[in-house]
TrEMBL record:
Protein name: Oligopeptide transport ATP-binding protein OppD
Protein family per UniProt: Belongs to the ABC transporter superfamily.
SMART domains: AAA
Gene3D superfamilies the UniProt entry points to: P-loop containing nucleotide triphosphate hydrolases (3.40.50.300)
GO molecular function: ATP binding; ATP hydrolysis activity
Main location: membrane
One CC-aspect GO term: plasma membrane
Annotated organism of origin: Capillimicrobium parvum
Topology versus the membrane: Peripheral membrane protein
């Protein structure tokens, strides 16, 4: 087994506010090896971006409290000083931010912004830095790179600005690349180009990538492993095949069910998950998903640990593996389950149309 380049253990992030303490990240553990793509998937507010930013110390503030550790080589990123993080940030661990228009300085030329990061970490002359900038822009597919390096961010399209962000992140050849929603607000053809470019760059540099997204469909062709987050916790984690063909958590079923499938007839509306995400000021007792889950039963008031319950990959659901496999699909082409346990743990018939679990293929 390849040694992990990054190990996150029991990470917790709380924010003290006037309304109370927000438990943004609750006991998150991850590992990442060189050349691997780990997709962190979940809806808005699930803690994905807070987790990513905590690794680089970007959300440190007087009201923030951190727990656990994140070991990069011999450095604990959570306990590291600001000076230590400044040496690592950009040079060894880089981040592609969600919105390039607000991440780039609107009054500085593109080439200068890329050059600034290079010169912060490497002792290069102005000429050598300029050559590096042009080469990076060409590498990510920006045409007429020498000319375009003198342009301002507003002179680029959304897709080209995202390419600039990738070039900026790769400027010092980092070992770990964090891509936070890199395809948000881009049309599907540009999304495909950005993901293809990330895949090519991973193959060229053997960099490890953490891909933060809300869309499981986006990661199907690029990810090696997937961590599904909900309510500040990882609720399921596994390889791409394990998550797509043998999902174990009802929230994962809902995410998979929201993906449009071209191999099925246009039938009824895509299923949605009932209810709203929990408030992390006062999350539900036990499983954070139980208020929205059609399969809730008495034991769900206890906090489920992230463990392998027989499927070969870990999840946070108290149901047995056999029970999950029986419940997540009624028959090919149908969505949902026709049974739900009552408060005593016994099954009771319910309307299959009211259940929001997703059919996920022929598993």
């Amino acid at each position: 087994m390849t040694e992990p380049i990054l190990e996150v253990e029991h990470l917790k992030v709380d924010f003290h506010t006037d309304e109370g303490t927000v438990h943004a990240v609750d006991d998150v553990s991850l590992t990442l090896t060189a050349g691997e793509v780990l997709a962190v998937v979940g809806e808005s507010g699930s803690g994905k971006t807070v987790t990513a930013m905590a690794l680089l110390g970007l959300n440190r503030s007087p009201n923030a409290v951190f727990g656990g550790r994140a070991m990069y080589q011999d450095t604990d990123l959570i306990a590291a000083s600001d000076a230590q993080l400044r040496k690592i940030r950009g040079a060894e661990i880089a981040m592609i931010f969600q919105d390039p228009m607000t991440s780039l300085n609107p009054v500085q030329r593109i080439g200068k912004q890329i050059a600034e990061q290079i010169q912060a970490h490497e002792n290069l002359s102005d000429g050598e830095t300029h050559d590096r900038v042009v080469a990076l822009m060409e590498r990510v597919g920006i045409p007429r790179a020498a000319e375009r390096a003198r342009a301002y961010p507003h002179e680029f399209s959304g897709g080209m600005r995202q390419r600039v962000m990738i070039a900026l992140a790769l400027s010092c050849s980092p070992s770990v690349l964090i891509a936070d929603e890199p395809t948000t607000a881009l049309d599907v053809t540009i999304q495909a180009q950005i993901l293809e470019r990330l895949n090519e760059l991973k193959a060229e540099t053997n960099a490890a990538i953490i891909l933060v997204t809300h869309d499981l469909g986006v990661v199907a062709d690029i990810a090696d492993r997937i961590a599904v987050m909900y309510g500040g916790r990882i609720v399921e984690q596994g390889t791409i095949d394990e998550i797509f063909y043998d999902p174990q958590h009802p929230y994962t079923w809902g995410l998979l069910g929201s993906i449009t499938r071209i191999d099925r007839d246009r039938g009824e509306r895509l299923p949605s998950i009932a209810g709203l995400p929990p408030s992390l000021l006062a999350p539900p007792q036990g499983c954070h998903f139980r208020a929205r889950c059609p399969h809730e039963f008495a034991k769900c008031t206890e906090v489920p640990d992230l463990a392998d319950r027989g499927a070969g990959h870990p999840d946070r659901c108290w149901l047995s593996t056999d029970d999950k496999r029986a419940r997540r699909e009624v028959a090919p082409g149908e969505i949902g389950l026709a049974t739900k346990p009552d408060v005593d743990g016994h099954r009771a018939d319910v309307d299959a149309g009211s259940v929001q679990a997703a059919e996920v293929g022929d598993a």
